[in-house]
Amino acid sequence: MRTKTLLLLTSAIVLAVVMSSQVSAQNSKFMSVDEVRQGMKGFGKTVFQGTTIEQFDVEVLGVLKNFAPKQDMILVRLAGGPLERTGVIAGMSGSPVYIDGKLLGAVAFAFPFSKDPIAGVQPIQQMLGILDQKPATPQRAAAGGSGTLPQESPTAF
């Protein structure tokens, strides 16, 4: 069971990286949180079993603004595959979600006691914003930060 979960998680991360690298060249391929409306429908891609990439349905329930400092979460209901029986599977983290042909973000949150397959999607713009942050200065790194961020913009990356 643990190996299966690890395989699903690894597959989802690889899938998210591959899919996001394909659309990162053009910002028009991304959907911002401000464009998201309740009732919008789209799809996501993940690996439920083995190595086969499968599609699942997504319906937007709403946007939770500032659920954490400077962080929004898009609340969605998922359907398809085994989701009706299992709910959101832990290995789905990183699974890309698309609406109207634009990358909305990736599955990042689950509600394990929910009776429905409800998930939280981390918006792509927030993920790309992390790459745009300035690298840590030597003083900041010495004060507690241990790493630096890439020097390139997400588009150049």
Structure description:
The protein has 157 residues and is α+β, with helices and mostly antiparallel strands. It has four helices and six strands, in the order αβββαβββαα. It is globular, with a radius of gyration of 16 Å. A hairpin with a 2-residue loop joins strand 4 and strand 5.
> What is the average per-residue confidence, as pLDDT, rounded to a whole number?
78
Poorly predicted regions = 1-12, 14-18, 20-26
Shape: globular
Helix percentage: 10-25%
Number of helices: 4
By secondary-structure content and strand pairing, the structural class works out as: alpha+beta
Radius of gyration: 16 Å
Q: Please list the strands of the largest sheet in the order they lie side by side.
A: 1-2-3-6-5-4
Main sheet overview: 6 strands, antiparallel, barrel
Q: Helix and strand succession?
A: HEEEHEEEHH
Oligomer: single chain
Total beta-strand segments: 6
Q: Which percent band covers the strand fraction?
A: 25-35%
Q: For the terminal residues, how far apart are their CA atoms?
A: 36 Å
